[in-house]
Specification:
With 162 residues, the chain is mainly alpha-helical. The protein folds into three domains: 51 residues, no CATH class; 59 residues, no CATH class; 45 residues. The protein has eight helices and two strands. It has a two-stranded parallel sheet. Strand 1, helix 4 and strand 2 form a beta-alpha-beta unit. Helix 1 runs parallel beside helix 3. The two termini are 29 Å apart.
């Protein structure tokens, strides 16, 4: 519903809200009924038609897991595939075969983190936290530096380019 709210806000007073939006709003106002997923999609599609061009970014699609309760990743993917032609969509995800198969005809841009950028970011985070002595049980500066370097290398190794 956040996307819908953003679209309505952007419209301002330029045009009248869609009939679908008015119906959903009236149902909530009179009966306190939240719209169903299909009603939300219907309203969103109606509001999208008002704009010449819409850019939709959906981050971390892989975190909308298929097996989780109340998850509807397949529904989300289906929705994004069926958006009107005035909507350009960018989805981000960790590598996931299910998501990849859903968009086999579309572009995939692999992104791999730069090791130097990771090292710089993690080092800055360590430095902003102050001394690591409490973590490693030592006040020896050499031990602290070794620990910091070990931790940075381990995080970079485990990140596998993420």
């Amino acid at each position: 519903m956040s996307l819908l709210a953003q679209l309505v806000h952007l419209q301002g007073n330029r045009c009248e809200p869609s009939r679908e939006l008015k119906d959903v709003h009236e149902g909530f106002r009179l009966k306190g009924m939240h719209p169903t997923l299909s009603e939300s999609i219907e309203v969103l599609e109606a509001e999208l038609k008002v704009f010449d061009r819409v850019y939709l970014v959906v981050d971390a699609v892989d975190e909308c897991s298929d097996g989780a309760p109340h998850s509807n990743r397949d529904g989300l993917l289906q929705f994004t595939r069926n958006l009107p032609s005035n909507v350009s969509t960018l989805l981000t995800s960790r590598p996931d075969d299910g998501i990849r198969k859903s968009f086999s005809a579309h572009y995939e841009i692999p992104i791999k983190a730069n090791t130097n950028d990771l090292r710089s970011y993690i080092g800055t985070r360590f430095d902003s936290r102050g001394s690591t002595s409490a973590l490693i049980g030592s006040t020896a500066l050499e031990t602290e530096r070794d620990y910091k370097e070990f931790a940075i290398n381990r995080v970079i190794e485990k990140s596998d380019g993420m």
